[in-house]
Amino acid sequence: MNKKMIALAVAAASLSSVATAAEVYSDETSSLAVGGRFEARALMKDTDTSSNKVTDKTRVRVNIAGKTDITDSIYGLGFWEGEYKDGEDINNRHLNAGIGGDFGKVVYGKTDGSLAALTDFTDIMAYHGNEAGNKIDAGDRTGNNLAYIGSFDLGGNNLVLNANYVFDGDNENVAGEYDVNGYAASAIYAMDMGLAFGAGYGEQDGYGPLNTEKAKQAFGALSYTAGDIYVAALYQDAEDTLVDGSLIKDSKGYEFAAAYTLGKTVFIATYNFLEDSDNNIDLRDSIAIDATHYFNKNFRTYASYKFNNLDKKDVGQAAASDEFVLGARYDF
């Protein structure tokens, strides 16, 4: 997530208590910090063969961030984050280095695409949500990616600009189905009075074996923060994108999110809808609620439930099943 943007537009002090990474080394010009999380997650849902099956979704993330001053206003940086789940290989979520300054920062490697800053408006739940934010790979986190982000103070208001280009080459998508090649850009304006809004657009080449036209996607997002209350909305319109491995010629979707902080507990609800507009088929339709209790800045527990409104006659038992998740998370 864009932490500075979330702090301004999503009131992160209320919605999250992520611990600051620990500095493990520093000298006059350089520093190194280590952070991450241990997160136990138990998912209960129906499958096509059994009811109320419990699946272990436990994971651990570790990140290392380095920074060194080059001049009084220019610095070099590097960042790595890996995630491990039992029985799987380590997933390199971030792996990049670059240069920064008053102009912002430019990095190359595996890093977030520019559309992620917009889906962050409503992607605030402990587990569920973000079903309508079906980003193309070039707008999401991917490798072979040259990315820019700049945050500018405008008299108490804040402007965040993102742009990235994913080069053509040996850079497969998550499923290994095609090489990612495209670009994305977004702009977010957060006002001091609690209102924030943003828009973004991305394109990437058609999916190799399908030989389609360029995938195109546009996002719009809006949020408002008032004390302990936060509300947000996200809208997307896309052409030639993949949903669950299927090519969708024309899709539209939206997500609404609301959060309320009561002491050390945060209550969140979201509604997600995504449709195949050409064929008038619902791809996502769900209401999710969760509650997260923060014992301190390092430890939290949560419960999350998704009410799935899809019809099992159309998509099958597993795809239409409700879900219940219990989690415990330790940040360091």
TrEMBL record:
Membrane topology, record value: Multi-pass membrane protein
Compartments, as annotated in UniProt: Cell outer membrane
SUPFAM superfamilies: Porins (SSF56935)
Porin domain residues: 7-311
A Pfam entry, by short name: Porin_4
Transmembrane intervals: none
Chaperone is among the record's keywords: no
InterPro entries to which the protein is assigned, alphabetical: Gram-neg_bact_OMP (IPR050298), Gram_neg_porin_domain (IPR033900), Porin_dom_sf (IPR023614), Porin_gammaproteobac (IPR001897)
Superkingdom of origin: Bacteria
Keyword annotations: Membrane, Signal
UniProt keyword Signal, yes or no: yes
Signal peptide segment: 1-21
Stated family: Belongs to the Gram-negative porin family.
Name listed for the protein in its UniProt record: Porin
Organism: Photobacterium atrarenae
Lineage: Bacteria, Pseudomonadati, Pseudomonadota, Gammaproteobacteria, Vibrionales
